[in-house]
Amino acid sequence: MRKIEMVDLKSQYQKIKPAIDIGIQEVIDNASFIAGKPVQDFAIELAAYAGVKNVIPCANGTDALQIAMMALDLQPGDEVITPSYTYFATVEVIALLKCVPVFVDVNPETFTIDAAEIEKAISSKTKVIVPVHLYGQAADMEPILALALKHNIAVVEDNAQAIGGDYIFKSGKSMKNGSMALISTTSFFPSKNLGCYGDGGAIFTNDDQLALKLKMIANHGQRVKYYHDLIGCNSRLDTIQASILRVKLQHLDEYCLARRVAADYYDKAFANHPKIKTPVRASYANHVYHQYTIILSDDVNRQALIDYLQQKEIPTMLYYPLACHKQKAFEKGARIVGNLKNTEWLSPRVLSLPIHTEMDEEQLNHITSSVLEFVK
């Protein structure tokens, strides 16, 4: 049996090696390492895939979020509503801009922000809502967008973990994750469903004027070289990474399908087990399984299970062991709405199992049988 990885990037690379190697070599031959043509080509191709007018590539997903919020002209003390159950970067950029993170609870079934909790958190200082599409599952965007419209609040989609997925409105209309909000962001960290071989990110918007501003902020606030109209930053997707992403974008749908096939195997193996709750597939979304995250019952010793699986050479991960509102960095300067009971209930009970595009039945059988041996 092949070694089990949380994400097997080596095996994935072997399948697309000729195209990747040609693309990288062309960049080296042209010496177009910064802002080369593959960057512009990738932006156009990704925009077409996502169904948006503008894609602005940048250096990483955290920068994408920060640039998005900078473009909204937030002022110190402005409030940004976000789930506490998310990766730290979502909230970090709010604090960096001297704004106030407002933490709300998530739906325990989907792991994503609860629109009802958002409504409770809205104040006169609320300027932005940041729904996070977590583990490959989209947040329920329709009620969130309706709330934002009602209260004249901007929405920034954090789509770092769910690119390639679809959201289905009650009307039956379908849109790609990352195409619904005023601004959306994503990450191309190597382990992502669409990942490069280093760091990378992108910002999406259908607003042409806002797109121009986002581009300027990502490029030192300049539209014309050496003429700076805004205070910006230096955040570029380098040409080699863009070349890699152009190849991998062509395979994104098959990558998402491969993850769903692995998730199907897990679901079937753990079906109706009283101590294991498998990920819910929300009726409004097409899950892309960036992570396969189970919830363990209270009588399962999670750390002992992790140790047992490690002995069986099966890696696991905890996303996330300590919610953002519990982090030392946010002891001050944040606002908590409600008791976040779902967030605090999930954190000590979740466990993510390996899932990626190259999993085979032998690996999946070894993982599931090992989990079931322990969780009797």
Descriptive overview:
It contains twelve helices and 16 strands. It is of the alpha/beta class and 376 residues long. It folds into two domains: 241 residues, Type I PLP-dependent aspartate aminotransferase-like (Major domain) (Aspartate Aminotransferase, domain 2); 123 residues, Aspartate Aminotransferase, domain 1 (Alpha-Beta Complex). A hairpin with a 2-residue loop joins β10 and β11. α2 packs parallel to α8. The two termini are 25 Å apart. The relative contact order is 0.18.
N→C terminal distance: 25 Å
Helix content: 25-40%
Instruction: Spell the H/E element sequence.
Output: HHEHEHEHEHEEEEEHEEHHEEEHEHEH
Number of helices: 12
CATH architecture field of the largest domain: 3-Layer(aba) Sandwich
What coarse outline follows from CA principal-axis ratios? globular
Largest sheet: number of strands, sense, barrel closure:
8 strands, mixed
Alpha-beta classification: alpha/beta
Number of domains: 2
Reading side by side through the largest sheet, how are the strands ordered?
Answer: 1-9-8-5-4-2-3-15
- What do we call the CATH homologous superfamily of the largest domain? Type I PLP-dependent aspartate aminotransferase-like (Major domain)
Please name the CATH topology of the largest domain: Aspartate Aminotransferase, domain 2
- Based on CA atoms alone, the radius of gyration comes out at 21 Å
Q: Hey, roughly how much beta strand do the residues contain? A: 15-25%
